[in-house]
Design a protein that fits this description.
Layout (H helix, E strand, L loop, with lengths): L5 E10 L2 E11 L4 E5 L6 H8 L7 E6 L2 E2 L5 H6 L2 E4 L11 H6 L8 H11 L1 H5 L10 H13 L5 E5 L7 H16 L3 E5 L3 H6 L3 E6 L2 E6 L1 H7 L1 H4 L5
Parallel strand pairs: 3-8, 3-9, 6-7, 7-8
Antiparallel strand pairs: 1-2, 1-4, 4-5, 9-10
Helix pairs in contact: 4-6
The structure holds adenosine-5'-diphosphate and magnesium ion.
């Protein structure tokens, strides 16, 4: 087997004295889409924060493409190919669509290439390139957030609750694009409340409860054995 794109070993993290990640072990194979499911408060977003360098681990190790990156800062993580779409919409509301995208071209990728990638995945963004991001629908803002993450040609994309506050039809559309992005060779870890939608485009799934991964497997297997946990809220 090739080196996994992401390997998390016995990872711990806390807010003050409250430990929220309590020994997370998770492996995302290169080229795979993995869904990370689990109830509210399980620690999924905290895991995203620690992996993406926004929060320090209190113990454990993280490897990205074989490189040890525990405690690496965002710039170092970007260099090894990590890109994150955090929970909530990470766009600048008072800038236009185009300005939001061009801002991402600092990393050496030319602005034209950033725009081309965005518009090929999301033609709707091309129509709206001069619109202020904050005046677009939630789904369109999420398309823009994903496009910003794609700008630096990531090896691993972390997506935290793309579906937040969006209508099921739009969520389906976003996940169709997630599948297309994966086909281009990007590995993806997607955290999602809409378990069925995420599992539809995933090769593997993991379930987190109480700060630990309690199950990992293929989507059908996870749906069958963990249905009470992962379909508890929304399907
Ligand atoms: N900034 C914070 N300060 C204190 N506690 C937090 C903070 N963010 C999250 N938590 C707590 O950590 C736990 C895990 O939260 P989170 O990682 O957001 O879970 P999930 O994304 O799975 O819903 C929850 O109990 C939550 O209340
Ligand atoms: Mg969360």
């Amino acid at each position: 087997m090739s080196v996994p794109i992401l390997e998390v070993l016995d990872l711990h993290a806390a807010y003050g004295r409250i430990e929220v990640l309590r020994g997370v072990d998770l492996t995302v194979p290169k080229g795979a889409v993995m869904a990370l499911l689990g109830p509210n408060g399980a620690g999924k977003s905290t895991l995203v924060k620690v992996v993406s360098g926004q929060k320090r681990a209190t113990g454990g190790d993280i490897h990205l493409g074989g490189v040890h990156v525990t405690d690496a800062d965002s710039a170092e993580l970007a260099r090894v190919g990590l890109c994150t779409v955090p929970e909530g919409r990470s766009v600048f509301p008072n800038l236009t669509v185009q300005e939001n995208l061009v801002l991402m071209s600092y990393a050496g990728v030319p602005a034209d290439a950033v725009l081309d990638t965005a518009f090929s995945y999301f033609p709707r963004l091309a129509e709206r390139r001069h619109q202020l991001a904050g005046t677009m629908s939630g789904g369109e803002q999420q398309m823009l957030a994903m496009s910003r993450a794609l700008a630096s040609d990531p090896a691993l994309l972390l997506l935290d609750e793309l579906s937040m506050g969006l209508a099921p039809l739009i969520v389906d559309e976003l996940y169709d694009t997630v599948a297309q992005i994966a086909e281009s060779g990007v590995s993806i870890l997607c955290i999602e409340q809409f378990a069925r939608t995420a599992l539809r485009v995933s090769d593997y799934a993991a379930v987190m409860i109480g700060g630990r991964i309690v199950a990992t497997g293929e989507p059908a297997e996870i749906l069958e054995t963990m249905d009470d946990v992962i379909l508890g809220g929304v399907a």
